[in-house]
Every structure is written in structure tokens, then in C-alpha cells.
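Predicting holo structure, zinc ion bound.
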Amino acid sequence: MGWFKRLKDGIQTATRNKKEAPEGLWYKCKRCKETSTMKEMKDNFLKCPKCNYHARIGSYDYFDIIFDGTYTELFSELRSKDPLNFTDLKPYTKRLDEAYKKNDVSDAITVAHGKVNRKALVIAAMDFKFIGGSMGSVVGQRIANAIDYCIETRTPLLIISKSGGARMMEAAYSLMQLPKTSAKLTLLAKHKIPYISLMTDPTTGGVTASFAMLGDINIAEPEALIGFAGPRVIKETIKKDLPDGFQTSEFLLEHGFLDFIVDRKDLKETLSDLLYFFDETRPANAS
Amino acid sequence: MVFLEFEKPLEVLYEQLEKLQQVGDEGEIDVTEMIKMLENKIKNKRKEIYSNLTGWQKVQLSRHPERPYTFYYIKQMCRKFVELHGDRYYADDKAIVGGIGSLDGQTVVILGQQKGVNTKMRQYRNFGMANPEGYRKALRLMKLAERFGFPVVTLIDTPGAYPGLEAEERGQAEAIARNLFEMAQLKVPIVSVVIGEGASGGAIGIGLGDRVFMLENTWYSVISPESCSSILWRSWDYKEQAAEALKLTADDMYEFGLIDGIIKEPMGGAHSNPEEMAKMLKRHIKKAISELQEMSEDERIDARIEKYSKMGEYSIISEEEIVNENDKK
Ligand SMILES: [Zn+2]
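Done. C-alpha cells:
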């Protein structure tokens, strides 16, 4: 296993530190349209200080919120390819180049290993800004590697989903990431490594129909859109308006698909509690 | 006979043939030779058309109204078959059918999406678009097979999982995800065959297998060409381009290593000789099952997971390149 040797040899991707809130910038809430300073927003766990709207945030923002101080990014050497030579109105390679320029992440998921109140956790966090958080081969492979890493190091896994669905430009390769990630998760389960799935706004399509729904614990941020089909497609199919609150976290909780909903300010402590319950190194948990 | 757009030259020849036969029936002129020539011409024309099909043409063929569906194959392949109903939680989905049958003596659980054969039945079968209870029925049958050591055969033919309001309420995504998780570690052999349309999550929801085949004129992708056109081209008019771009044919899928084999169709497509098609399908399924039965349970599951773990195309950049990228940020 290439990556594991690399880690042992101490060759690894740079350890990151928490980002400082940029001074003097303003945040305008998408929902209540009120304005706050970026600092106020950052101090409020990147939620709107006025209405508690959970803004869509990036992979590194989640690492900052959840991890104690520093963390180590894993598998950042994987990059998307263009196996189909795909061109629609734009070549896929061009879409990728634009996505690299625009974003701090190198694909729609980023994996890191760090500590949560001193307990080890691997987080694979998706990022909607990278081609709509779409799942292509790199997303699948980073998850597969993260699972191998978790088994090797006996570390719990948290996947934070945030995806518009498939990476259409990778067509069937994208589709095969559903069986791939689901099959890998059976290995994690076999080794009794806990897997927590956190669904955030939005979690739809192939991501929902594979790893996002397969957590030992399934949780979500408030008012996130979570579903298989997108609301527009459903509306066109049934030719009726959709009820209020359809496909929200609260709707999924009500229908039995979530264990609970967690406010972003409580996320770290909640995860810390879960990690405590599952911690196999605690003497009381020794079987 | 139903002729697709690209089969128009054939339709013209068949019309000529019919007229000629009428003349022959009147008995005034001997047309035997002419009929023979025309039949030969039809044969060659069909060969010409069918040896150069585009992606979009194969999509059309996969949806041909006369194409055999799951029940047809089950009845042709299994001398005995009993249909089993219901998911035991909510309902009996009519878009996914299945049961227990015998392939020349070998008991199998066989299931698949079923499309309707006429307007009324198409409605009844929901056009082969399953609700969560369909996927849960499929899983129940697979677990039954596992308990008794019967191989599982799944036949895929769907334009997608049903995107409805109640499907979401009952957890369409969870149902498909659960099937993938359970199929990955099912103890008995799984052979899956795309017999028509293999559209996205709705197809893969019963499509994870030790051996996955596609019939020659079927398609398999993450989205239909029509929807791809509407999203990426922002218009419904680019379905032909989308079909090419998605590389969704059996040949493409085999070349990418995403399926294990292609099952040839009779010249003119599965519907031109359904009995022959069913025979070929049965031969492939039986061969795959006996190969898989040679392996131990653990070997089979390990190989299955390993096969899917390898699916994906990506590149690996060097340490130096990563550092350079990080410096830029
Ligand atoms: Zn607000």
C-alpha cells in the first residue's frame, strides 16, 4: 500500500493550521439577507449570526471546526482524469482547471486525520464548490483510501456529505463509485470501526444512494436538502408542488432515516461524545 | 413489426417483400426467385445497419417496444418458476419482479425490473421504475437465496429509480444504498445482466455482482442521454451528442473494465429473435454460475469487493507538485 508506506516514512502532505477569520469582510446571509461581519459569522461556527442559517462551507472549514488545532491531510496526491475525453459545452479538462484555480481543495472531497478532544478521527469532507460536490473517481478513491487507512490505524471515520450527485463527465466511472464505496464500507464494518455519516446541504443523488445513508450513525445539519432525486425532477414527474419542508433534514428525521440533527455549534462536542462511546481503548469497553 | 428511425431502409424492403408475396399469392407469376433475392437484400441491409450502430441508436434499440423483458427471459430460461411478492415492510412493487426458479435443475433466485408490454401494463409496471419497496423486495429475495445457498441472477432494465414524492418519504436512497452494502457481502454468487436500459442508481441498486454482463445493444450509465443533454447542454436537443459523450455502450463499458462481458444479440437485436437471445443469455448465466461455484464464499466476496475497489480512473501527482500547489494558495 503506497500511501501507508509514505506515511510511515514521514513523507506526507503538509500539516495545516486553523485559518484566521479575514478582517473587514462582510457576510450577507442567503436566507434572511441580513449582513454580519465575517468575524461574527466565523465566531458563530460559520452560521448566520442573525438567523442561524447553516451556510454552505468548505472541507477545510469543517476541519477547523471539528479538529483540535492541527491535522494532517491525506491522499491529496490523487487527481481527476478525463477517461472519456468528455466535452459538453466545455471540455471536462477545462472544468477541472477552473475548479482547481477557484478552490482551495483539489477535488470534491478532502481527507484529513486529526484529533477531536484528543481522540483520533479521520474526516472525509466534501466541498460543494468543486464541480457541485460531484462524485467522480477521485472522490471514490479518496473514500476507499480513507477506509483502508481507518482499518490500518483503527481510527473511526466521519464522512461529511455535500453533493449535487454524480460527476456526469465521468459517466459510468462515476456510477461505479456507488458500489465501490459501499463495498469498501462493508470492510470497515467487518473490522468494527465506527462510521459516522454527516449529511449537509445539499446531499443528493449517488452520494445519498451509497455511503451517506450507510453510517452506523446517520446525522445531519439543520434544514439541509437531503434526497435521492432533486426536487425539480420530482416536481416535473408528479406534476404537483412539493410540500413545505420536503426532503429537509427534519423530514428525513421524521421518516426514520436520521439518528438526529445537530447544530454546527454542537457538532464537535457531539462527535466527541460519540467517539467516547465507541472508544475501544477505554478499559470499560474492552470485551 | 416496429421499425426504428435508422431501420427505415429495412421497412421499405419489407414493404416490397409484402407486395411481392401478394403477387405470388395471386398465382399468375412465379416470384420465388425474386423473393429470395429480396430476402437476401434484407439480410445484407440489416447486417450493414447493425454493424455500425451509434450510441444513441443502441439506446433506441434498448427501448425497442418489442424487446423482451425480464419475465420473458425468466419463463424461457426456467422450466419451473414461482413468483414471490412483497418486501414485508410496505408493499409489492410491480416494477421489480422476482422469484425462485430452476435453471436446468439448479435452483436460483432470479429478479429484475419489469416493463409493461402495452399501455395499460406500462402504467402498472411504472415503466420499470421501482420505488424503495422494489429494492427492498429484491434484497429480501437475495437474503432468501443466501440462506439456502442459491445463486442470484438479476436482470437490469430500467430508465431509473422512480423520482416520486413517496419514494423519497420511504427512502429511495437508503434502499439502494442498503442493497449495495448487502450485495457486496452476499454469501452466494451474483450474476447481473443489463438486458435493456441500465440507468444510474436505479440500475446499480440490483446490479452489484460477481459477474456483470451487458447484452450487445443495451446501455449503462450514470444518467440518460436525455437528462444529460438537458443538464449539461441546457437543452433536450443534444441527446445524440450526450449518448456519444457518455460512452454508454456495452463495448465502451467492457473496454473500461466496468463490466465482465458482452452477450451478443441476434442480428437485428434481441427482439428479432427472442428465443435465440434467451438461449444465449441462459448459456452465459449458467457458465458464470458454475465458475463462481468453484470458489469458496470468502474468495468470492473478496474478489467481488476487490473488483469494485479498482473501478475508477485518476492520476497521482508527486510530492513536489503538491508542495507547489500549496505554496500558490
Ligand atoms: Zn440569516
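The pocket of zinc ion is lined by residues A 29, 31-32, 34, 48, 50-51, 53 (CB under 6 Å).
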